[in-house]
């Protein structure tokens, strides 16, 4: 079956099942093209909690679909390929976090949203790459902070807030692949281009950048900046969205190696099968979901977005 036939079938089934498609910025272009909403993990989860649709097809990785399920437990959250995990989220387990908390009983746990539901359930507050600095500033009276799981995001936030963390040593393999020498090469080839990198990149890569921004931050920046050329240091899927939204501007990948294989597991075929079978479904136990909702809610309170999330 060719793509247009698959898309036709998907659209028909989607209407019949009254589903919506939430698609992460790192998905392949043809999946981005059928999105009802395209965005970052938390933005998509917030949309999930506001939608009237009973069925959500989450095209991203598992922790994102779990977060959607935590925020809207009454909805059916489907994920086209359950094997799409996040290597960084898998770098810390709930039992490892419990052991760390035991070692630092006075510390509060700040967990990046890129964590499993079980790990969130053991955390005090969450953050995203866009609001991590703001969340840490709000924790000014907290003496010790355990920051999990991304050591590079922790370093970036520490640098900006001058706070020291007990940081876990996780990292994102796709963002670590953005090497400083690749950025230097691209800067040399495109001397007029601005360099935007994600805070999950390593400190030497961030040092070479004009801006360190979340994916949504990059999308906003690309639209409003007078610059017509940009070198993008994040997962390759974002380039598709940037080029589509800014046809007059040119975007270069900082590195060809910044590809997350898990994000590429979702295909049009898998979306079609998922709608046909109404499976696989992502579920989080009621007990874990209740505990995991608390640190997400605290984060939303700090950034003043709770009203949008119900
Ligand atoms: S890009 Fe990195 S953080 Fe995002 S899902 Fe892939 S491994 Fe996880």
Protein traits:
310 residues; alpha/beta; 12 strands; binds iron/sulfur cluster
Provide a descriptive summary of the structure in words:
- The protein has 310 residues and is an alpha/beta fold.
- Helices cover 44% and strands 15% of the residues.
- The chain is built from 15 helices and 12 strands.
- The chain has helices at residues 3-17, 29-32, 41-50, 62-71, 94-103, 117-121, 132-138, 151-161, 173-176, 180-189, 203-207, 215-224, 237-245, 268-277, 286-302, and strands at residues 19-24, 37-39, 55-59, 76-78, 108-112, 125-127, 145-148, 166-167, 194-197, 211-212, 229-233, 250-253.
- The strands form 3 sheets. The chain has a 4-stranded parallel beta sheet with strand order 2-1-3-4, with helices on both faces. A 4-stranded parallel beta sheet has the order 6-5-7-8. Strands 10-9-11-12 form a 4-stranded parallel beta sheet, with helices on both faces.
- Strand 5, helix 6 and strand 6 form a beta-alpha-beta unit.
- Iron/sulfur cluster binds next to helix 9.
Radius of gyration: 19 Å
Largest sheet: 4 strands, parallel
Give the overall silhouette.
Answer: globular
Residues in helix, %: 40-55%
Oligomeric state as shown: single chain
